[in-house]
Amino acid sequence: MTKKMVCIECPKGCVLEVDMDAKPVKITGNKCPKGIGYALSEMEDPRRVLTSSVLTESLELKLAPVKTDRPVPKKELSRAMEEIKKIRLKRAVSAGDIVAENFLGMGIKLVATREVGLV
Ligand code: SF4
Questions:
Q1: pTM, full prediction
Q2: Interatomic CA distance for residues 97 and 47, integer angstroms
Q3: In this structure, are 78 and 25 located in the same domain?
Q4: For a Cys staple, 103 with which of 35, 45, 108, 115, CB 3.0–4.6 Å?
Q5: How many CB atoms within 10 Å of residue 18?
Q6: How far apart are CA 107 and CA 87, in angstroms?
Q7: 56 and 104 part of one domain
């Protein structure tokens, strides 16, 4: 069986073909070695950096944009969104400030991606 996927490690977006029946698995279509690592990671433990927004109180914006500082396992993304919905940011932040430590109990930080000041 051959599985196709698009490498998202850079804007080139190479279309990778993974021959799952080959031993070891054969990966083609990558224009650089990163594509091999991406394909292997996608098959074994797919992860994504999560970008979203948290609700604020008494700040100039009702929503503050955030992202995880590391990729989150794809299977945890729904739980991550549920946790993000519970957060209420009540202090001014600058880009890079930590909004939540040990997010999901996985040692991942949720960080602000822009400055949000007080009203
Ligand atoms: S395989 Fe290399 S060149 Fe192609 S999208 Fe991935 S990182 Fe970019």
A1: 0.84
A2: 23
A3: no
A4: 108
A5: 20
A6: 17
A7: yes
Decide: 111 and 98 in contact? Cβ < 8 Å. Answer: yes
The domain that holds 107 is classified in CATH as: 3.10.530.10
The mean pLDDT value for 33-46 works out to: 96
Q: Domain total for the chain? A: 2
Q: HSE of 69 in the Cβ direction (CA atoms, 13 Å)?
A: 17
Question: Residue 72 domain-assigned?
Answer: yes
State the chain's mean pLDDT as an integer. 97
Q: Which domain holds residue 34?
A: 2-44
Looking at residue 94, its pLDDT comes to: 98
Same domain, 7 and 31: yes
Q: For a ligand 1 pocket test, name from 5, 9, 18, 41 the mutation site with the most ligand atoms within 8 angstroms of its C-beta.
A: 9
Q: Which residues line ligand 1 (CB under 6 A)?
A: 7, 9-10, 12-14, 30-32, 34-35, 38
Using pLDDT thresholds of 50, 70 and 90, give the confidence band for residue 112.
very high
